[in-house]
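Ticket 4471: requesting a sanity check on a complex prediction with cytidine-5'-monophosphate. Repro inputs:
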Amino acid sequence: MKKLEQLYEGKAKKVFKTDVEDYLIVSYKDDATAFNGLKKGTISGKGEINNLMSNQLFQYLEKNGISTHFVETIDERDTVVKSVDIVPLEVIVRNVAAGSFSKRLGVEEGLEFEQPTVEFSYKNDDLGDPLINDSFAIALKLASQDEIDKIKEMALKINDLLKAYFIEKNIKLIDFKLEFGRFHGDIILADEISPDTCRLWDKDTNQKLDKDRFRRDMGDVEGAYSEVRNRLGF
Ligand code: C5P
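Returned structure tokens:
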């Protein structure tokens, strides 16, 4: 497959056209941003880790009945994916209070929930990705009720599968963000699953092994990403 012209450059990835209809190539960068682009930096080796980790997890999810955009890994940074029409929602699943949940609701980080929460943000940089609910998403014509029901069902199933996967590696899945897309009439999982988009805490010490180390200037960001890579064995 040929990598043709660049279609788009996002905060963490570039997207290229290919010579095959319906297929794109995503190329992961080491660039890191936080707080809607206000904080910028580089996490050396992040592109490789996020690419290979996403691909490993997407293959695991596929084996367990979740349709994803993953097609094939080209190399450490580049992957062939299906070209989807992205549903402009950030779908966040939480098992433990942290981040914006703790801040907004005055809850200490680390409180474990009896059942996971699912929330939506409207993917819109100009508005700072505001929190919305199902009826707002429908009013804004971001998705249909059927699509929202499907997305929630898939998000909760993905949570069960990922929690089980990470705990085997001595990692607690605190929360994560997913994006979905439309592909030939179906809703499939798109984007990435990586330490950029998940909160991952060591099971025994609660040490943070994710992008919060960059967001909060905690140091040893690269070390945390490498630790996840070692534990997942890729
Ligand atoms: O900041 P907040 O607590 O809402 O983040 C919840 C989860 O979603 C975290 O795992 C975070 O890494 C992820 N997230 C993301 N991209 C965003 C916002 C949140 O990957 N734009």
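Notes from triage: Residues 145-167 form the longest helix (23 residues). Leaving this open until the requester confirms.
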